UniProtKB/TrEMBL annotation:
This is HECT-type E3 ubiquitin transferase E3D. GO terms for cellular component: cytosol; nucleus; ubiquitin ligase complex. It comes from the Eukaryota. One of its GO terms (biological process) is protein autoubiquitination. InterPro entries: UBQ-conj_enz_E2-bd_prot. GO terms for molecular function: cyclin binding; ubiquitin conjugating enzyme binding; ubiquitin protein ligase activity.
Amino acid sequence: MADSIGFLVEYLPRIGTTSVVLDGIKEPSLKYSDLGKITVQDGRGERLDITLPYNPGKLKSKRLVRVSNSNKDEYLLILKSEEVRMDKSHNDVLLMPQMKWNKRQLNGLKNFRLCCLKCDGDIIDRGNCSRLNEMPSEFWMELMDYWHCHKPQDKTSEFYSLQKNSLSPCVKEILIGDSFFQAVEETFDGRTAVLDGNLAMCSNCKKILGRRTSDRMLRIPKWKLRLKSDDCQEDVFPAEFEVISILLNCNRANSTRYILLRSDDIQLYIWLFAMGIEVTLANGRTLHNCFKIFYSDVIPSNIGFKANVDEEQVDKVPLDKFIDALETTNSILPSSKQRFGTWKISYFPAAVE
């Protein structure tokens, strides 16, 4: 690969268009293969082979233009497919792939164990887990209006508060969210202890694992555990995907595209600019079904008061790792694609690959 040539490939499934931005190249010539690859060669003889994130097959049109407002040698290649793939999973956030360690995956493992990341003490195994169930949504309480034809009007009544406004899993029943496990406290007897302030720690090594919820259940983030089983290698859950689960659930709950994330003295303002796109980066990495994210550490002044903005508290570790991932990807984008006004631009997969 020619190191001096930067590029970004972006495939938009809903319109069947692939755009390729080439940076630091002079007088390029292109060769397209029906196998989903293009070969770029410039006037200096440097050659670059690029694998597209999706094979467009036969092309309806192919157009190469120089980017006129760029200070560098930059070109834009537009590939238009003859056939547009209609895949609802690329335009419906509700149908995006589940995060890993979901019910189907865990039920398919032999003797799985979820252990403390620090000491390997068992937190969830067949000794305290007889049933797995998916959480309806991490914002299930906010979606109550859609569940009832004749919802009780007196929300302060004991019946409504206890019977309709809380989850009541059985002992040894584990609820699975996108980024956490949750169960009644008795399920974790002998494995965790609850401290003042509603923090839950590992009974063995005293590491803080999670917290007690308002309905007196314990919630443990997936990234604080390690997965083991008889038929697969040990696995961990990347902490940064806890932030992705928050962004997904904000969008699922009320179609929010603007989210303000806070942790201690850190804040990150997110604009979910596009979802369900396919990308190939200059390091050769391909991201499927991913987000195009605009981000800033300050709220841009051009965002009006009419914008629907959600504000979410995030643990420091996931937010730090999420910011690092955004910055790493941003740094390898062509210079013209690193910013949009005051926003920085990056890409992130919607699920762990």
